[in-house]
Amino acid sequence: MKTNRTMVLLAIIGALTLGQRVWADDTNAADEIGVLRQQIDSLDQKVRILERQREVDRDAATDSAKEAVRTMPVITAGANGFSFRSADTNFMLALHGLVDVDSRSFFEDHGLKGNDGFILRRARPILQGTVFRDFDFLFVPDFGGSTVQIQDAYLNYRFSPELQLQGGKFKSPVGLEQLQSDTAILFNERSLATDLVPNRDLGVELHGDLFGGVISYAAGIFDGAPDYSGTTTNADYDDDKALAGRLFVQPFKTTSLSALRGFGFGIGGSYEVDRASTNTVNTGLTPGYLTDGQQKLFSYTNGVAGNGAHWRISPQGYYYYGPVSLLGEYVISEQRVQNFTKGKTAELQNSAWEISGGWVLTGEDASYAGVTPRHSFDPWNGGWGAVQLVGRYAELNVDKAAFPIFADPGTSASSAQAWAVGLNWYLNRDIRVDTSFSRTRFDGGTGAKATVTRQPENVFFTRMQLAF
Amino acid sequence: MKITCKVLSLLVFSLLAAGQAREIELLNVSYDPTRELYQDYNAAFAKYWKARTGDTVTILQSHGGSGKQARSVIDGLGADVVTLALAYDIDAIAEKGKLIPDDWQKRLPDNSTPYTSTIVFLVRKGNPKGIRDWDDLVKPGVSVITPNPKTSGGARWNYLAAWGYALKTQGNDESKARAFVARLFKNVPVLDTGARGATTTFVQRGIGDVLIAWENEALLSLKESGKDEFEIIAPSLSILAEPPVTWVDRVVKKHGTREVAKAYLQYLYSPEGQEIAAKNFYRPRLEVVAQKYAAVFPKVNLFTIDQVFGGWQKAQTTHFNEGGVFDQIQQSNR
Q1: Residue B189 is assigned to a structural domain of this protein
Q2: Among A30-39, B22-31, B93-102, whose mean pLDDT is lowest?
Q3: Which tens digits make up the pLDDT trace of A68-97?
Q4: How does residue B18 score in pLDDT terms, banded at 50, 70 and 90?
Q5: Residue B10 lies in a domain
Q6: Residue A31 confidence class, pLDDT cut points 50, 70, 90
Q7: Higher pLDDT, B141 or A279
Q8: Are A59 and B197 an interchain contact pair (Cβ–Cβ within 8 Å)?
Q9: CA distances from A454 to A112, A413, A440, A443 (A)
């Protein structure tokens, strides 16, 4: 019995001991799991932190690389020329170029010599730049033609788009066609209307665009230039100065009326008082009004000079819509002239007008700044550039009172009417090939058959233009 | 005479036409967390401006670290308006870029800060580390997420809020405040470059126990992630953050957008603008709107930067410039 009780007790103690060990083992396992979980959580955080740190470092490296690129001077070469500029765009220098190689073939000119042939019409390296963010400059020498001359050399301060001050040598703000870039004009030569407006002049002008370009203005004081002359000077010929200005409105430019956005009109004008002498080098008068073929259709006789008020006025306008373009202007140039030899004076009012238009057959948009072909010439890949059909009519009328005291009716016409048609092929943004035909009829011109004005002028033009 | 009449009619017609509807673009260069605010606000302003003038205005946005954004504007980014995290960054645009006048802050009400915010804590649901105030952030084992004060405007507010708290609770002792902030930054495992990046670190990457954040950013995280994941803890003391706005004179002059840029910022003060700010968790200035949204914003004792640090210029020079206190703290923590 005693043995049995002992056996039972031993069994109970054994069972209790075993149970305690099992319970103790469970507790230890839970603790370990807790510790392991903590370790896993800690490691998980560390991994997440390392991954995130890598992301942050990568972003920082990307930002640094972008910053390095952003602060590096930028060199570009493309269809718009070659340039390099500081990273902040405050300093920039660009090299552009313009080369026009023309041919003129005259028909039925009754033996006029020396007017047919190939001509290097323009050869201009163009240096354009900006210094200290707000100061722009342009320097354009021209090695084309028969004389080397500086076309443009000016400095422009941009206070804001609305208010800018420009000084140096540049186009006088009067004629619409004259102010259009050589790369955007429709024909090889500008029209008879441009014969009456000033070309480039030396002076200072305020100019700007108001309301996002809805209104453009320019007004300045200049040395004073004669009616259009291809060759310009770099100095004044008298003490008096000319005032010139232009106001141009594009009322729909910033509206959603797409059919009218390209409509603009304005007025340009100038006023000066010539006090020329008999010094025939600087008479204050045009060296000659030129035909489309650049032949002299009118000039004043020797001994005649400007001596008094000279004013011009030019209402003008254009319309561009899709591939269609129209441009027109009317110019009056009235000048008091004196024939010092004959002691006669007169106020002569000459006038001219033109209307020209174009249609881009390949559908590209036309604009005052020119035509940009949608596809560059690349026949192997189906690119043919842009083709534009162009036409123009222009008239120039010289004051009847100019004859015979101030101009020779034998060599000068009293009026001219010219029409022209042409086809312009824009191979790409830089190269253009033009062909056109122009016919100019003259009134007056009673000289020999070999004089320009004796018979109509018929000219076939071609042009190869490189402009970048 | 007839011709004169025709010319006059044409001129009048043209001038009338010139007054027709325009299409205008504005660029708003802003800091990181304002994306949602200006997305809503721009749509409302465009509608308002169209009704008022007939013009169509499109507002483009640029967001990034406030300091970096200011640098970009100085370097030529054509911002018509800037809406940055702190006045110092706009001061830099005035001083270094010369793009706005020095007294720009006087041009709009409330020192050109149409809305305010403050700095709060975002913690994980249940607040497992028991974070209640700034003191809890310096305890060992607490992982704190805040961006880098050198690049982030929000981080500078965070830093100064902590410093201000330490000063207040430790007898205005600068050395104790410095030690406090040093311990806090010792608990920061990752320094993001901007406030939005820090939110990503905490919310999306699951790193850290607490995010020191703009109140608007914390409320937005709560809205987007749900209240099951995070809680907002308002500390006993924080800083009144005043993000300023202004138009950039030289740019608006160049773009011809002065009138619309000015109106764009003035509209922020209107009841409609204030309502949009409040809906996007920025504290509105307008009392009526502030009362309407009082329940959204926890009550916090606030101090201003002028009261504790003597203004942004001084705070920047002392703490955040090269070799300043923050750099020294980071050096000693390595």
Answers
A1: yes
A2: A30-39
A3: 877 788 899 988 889 999 887 889 999 999
A4: very low
A5: no
A6: confident
A7: B141
A8: yes
A9: 11, 9, 11, 9
Domain boundary (B229, B254, B269) is at B269
Q: Which two tokens stand for residue A400?
A: 């009847």
* Residue of chain B minimizing CA distance to A254: B22
Nearest to A332 by CA among A138, A437, A175, A106: A175
Q: CA dist A303 to A40, A54, A285, A345, A455, Å? A: 107, 87, 11, 12, 27
User: Rounded distance, CA A219 to CA B188, Å?
Assistant: 64
Please count the other Cβ atoms lying within 10 Å of the Cβ belonging to residue B275. Answer: 18
pLDDT at residue B38 greater than cutoff 80: yes
A255/B22 CB distance under 8 A: yes
Whether B88 and B120 map to the same domain: the answer is: no
CATH code at B71? 3.40.190.10
DSSP codes joined into one string, B104-119? GGGSSHHHH-SEEEEE
* B13 within a domain of the structure (yes/no): no
Q: Considering the domain boundaries, does residue B328 fall inside one?
A: yes
Concatenated DSSP letters of B218-242: HHHHHHHH-TTTEEEE--SEEEEE-
B50/A47 Cα distance (integer angstroms): 52
Residues A189/A247, Cβ–Cβ less than 8 Å: no
For residue A161, give the nearest of B23, B193, B256 by CB distance.
B256
Q: What is the ipTM of this complex?
A: 0.70
- Interface A:B, Cβ pairs < 8 A: 67
Residues on chain B touching A212 (C-beta within 8 angstroms): 22, 256
Whether A383 has a pLDDT exceeding 60, the answer reads yes
B320 shares a domain with B225 = yes
Q: Do A48 and B75 touch (CB under 8 A)?
A: no
Q: Give the domain-ending residue among B269, B288, B315.
A: B269
In percent, the amount of chain B with pLDDT more than 90 equals 78
Give yes or no for a contact between B200 and B266, defined as CB atoms under 8 angstroms apart: no
Domain that holds residue B262: 21-113+242-269
> Are the CB atoms for A94 and A110 separated by under 8 Å?
no
Q: Which of A330-339, A405-414, B7-16 has the lowest mean pLDDT?
A: B7-16
For A194-243, how does the pLDDT look when each residue is reduced to its tens digit (9 = 90+)? 999 999 999 999 999 999 899 999 999 999 888 976 667 777 767 788 99
pLDDT above 60 for A1:
no
Q: How many CA atoms lie within 13 A of B65 on its CB side?
A: 22
> What is the Cα–Cα distance from A290 to A294, expressed in whole angstroms?
5
Q: What is the 3-state secondary structure (H, E, C) of A149-164?
A: EEEEEEEEEEEECCEE
Dig out the tokens for A204 from the structure: 């200072």
Under the banding of pLDDT at 50, 70 and 90, the label for residue B9 is low
What single string gives the DSSP state of each residue in A215-226? EEEEEEEES---
Pair B231, B208: CB distance under 8 Å: no
Distance CA A208, CA A163 (A): 5
Chain B: residue whose CA lies nearest to A255: B22
Lowest-confidence region among A10-24, A135-149, A443-457, B168-182: A10-24
Residues B49 and B185 in one domain: no
Structural domain count of chain B? 2
CA distances in angstroms from B246 to A466, B24, B216, listed in the order given: 47, 18, 21
Give the number of C-alpha atoms closer than 13 A to the C-alpha of residue A234, restricted to the C-beta side: 8
Query: Does A367 lie at the interface with B, CB-CB under 8 angstroms?
Result: no
Distance CA B326, CA A430 (A): 56
pLDDT digits 0-9 by tens, B207-236: 999 999 999 989 988 888 777 889 999 999
A12 vs A465 pLDDT, higher one: A465
Nearest-CA residue of chain B relative to A158? B254
